[in-house]
Amino acid sequence: MKARALLRLMRPHQWIKNGFVLLGVIFGHGLEEPALITEVLALFAAFCLASSAVYIMNDIADQDADRQHPSKRFRPLAHGDIGVGAARASCVVLALAGLSLSAAVSLSALIIVSAYVAINLAYSAGLKHVPILDVFIISGGFMLRILAGTMGIGIPPSKWLLLCGLMLTLFLGFGKRRAELVALGNGDANGAQGQRASLDGYSRPLLDLLIMVSVAGAAIGYALYTVDADTIALHGTDRLILTLPFVLYGLFRYLHVMYSRGGGGDPAWELLHDPHLIFAAAGWLSATAWFLAG
Question: What is the reported pTM?
Answer without folding.
Answer: 0.88
